[in-house]
Design goal:
By secondary structure, the protein is α/β, with parallel strands linked by helices. It is built from twelve helices and 13 strands. It has two domains: 138 residues, Rossmann fold (3-Layer(aba) Sandwich); 165 residues, Alpha-Beta Barrel (TIM Barrel). Helix content is 31%, strand content 19%. The longest helix has 13 residues. The protein is globular, with a radius of gyration of 21 Å.
Length: 332
């Protein structure tokens, strides 16, 4: 029987790295590390490092028993990740790279790693590990079609240092978004499609957190209410669990008073809304004007506040139609 492999899973900070990005405590952490660790844990022993909390090891500091270094990267950290991967490979380490930004630029990223995972990891990790064991890693792993999400594992929340993170732990119910905002990588990579996990799996993940004494969750989904029928079922399933929770929605959900009542009754504390801009021309230019009407913002916030739910407004600046006056309008 072949010996179990050792995988070092590294999450690179999205910025330039180093002390500028590092925190002694994170009030929010993403789902990538615990979830991808769960996928690899079906085939290997896994150790994780989040660069937002701890420095990445120098190549010479990595244990020689490490069979694979799996890097996840997003945003402007990609060039730094490619240099890091080059240095790892010079030390004879096998490197696989994934994440949204690497998936968006496969021709740039591919030459710097042994293997590139484009898109979702479900169904690809087993192939990577089998090829690693056979000494025949392929340069590229990708799906012809987005994978089904019915067999998702419980994230390895046990690998998270609870002393160094905030009160809210991440959970995922859906993946992808149907809206198609032009600035969003989710729409680009997901082809404006959304896939949904079985609600039983979502409840299972929340209960696993409750078993650890965690009773606050934040949904990482871009737009869990895209399918209103599914979202209503999800909200109704969360309510009896007795957790406090946060999720993203689009502004038009506030027009559905009955759904807002369900959210409040189910323990929803905060709704994060991508208002994006206070300039209607900017919204229209990125194909978000249908969902967001600037003259409706105050009514949207008021309707949500009436249910005792907080609103987290997410804004973007720097659109072509923005002016110095835009900053003052956002402040007001």
């Amino acid at each position: 029987m072949p010996s179990e492999k050792n995988v070092l899973l590294l999450q690179m900070a999205p910025g330039p790295g180093g002390l500028a990005d590092r925190h002694s405590r994170l009030w929010y952490f993403g789902l990538t590390l615990p979830y991808v660790a769960a996928l690899f844990s079906r085939h290997a022993r896994v150790r994780v490092i989040d660069e937002l909390l701890d420095p990445l090891p120098l190549p010479e500091q990595i244990d020689g028993a490490t069979d694979l270094v799996a890097l996840s990267v997003m945003g402007s950290a990609l060039p730094r990740a490619l240099v890091y991967a080059d240095n790892l490979r010079k030390r004879g380490l096998k490197v696989v790279l994934g994440g949204a930004t690497a998936s968006a630029y496969p021709d740039l990223a591919g030459p710097h790693v042994d293997s590139l995972v484009v898109g979702d990891s479900e169904g690809l990790v087993p192939a990577v590990m089998a090829d690693l064991a056979a000494g025949n890693l392929k340069p590229l792993y990708r799906h012809d079609q987005p994978p089904d999400l019915s067999d998702t594992p419980i994230p390895r929340y046990d690998l998270v240092d609870r002393r160094r993170v905030g009160f809210y732990f991440p959970v995922e119910a859906t993946r992808g978004c149907t809206i198609g905002c032009r600035f969003c990588v989710t729409s680009h990579l997901g082809q404006r499609r959304q896939r949904r996990k079985p609600i039983a799996n979502v409840v299972r993940d929340i209960r696993s957190l409750q078993a650890m004494g965690i009773h606050r969750v934040t949904f990482t989904d871009d737009n869990p209410a895209a399918d209103r029928g599914y979202f209503r079922e999800l909200v109704d399933a969360i309510g009896p669990l007795g957790v406090d929770w946060i999720c993203n929605i689009t502004a038009d959900v506030a027009e559905d008073g009955e759904l807002l009542d369900r959210l409040a009754a189910a323990g929803c504390e905060t709704l994060s809304i991508g208002f994006e801009s206070v300039e209607q021309a900017s919204l229209d230019s990125v194909d978000k004007g249908v969902r967001c009407q600037v003259d409706r913002y105050r009514a949207v916030v008021d309707r949500i506040h009436e249910r005792g739910i907080q609103v987290l407004a997410m804004m973007v600046v720097g659109f072509d139609h923005d002016t110095p006056r835009t900053f003052e309008r956002i402040r007001r």
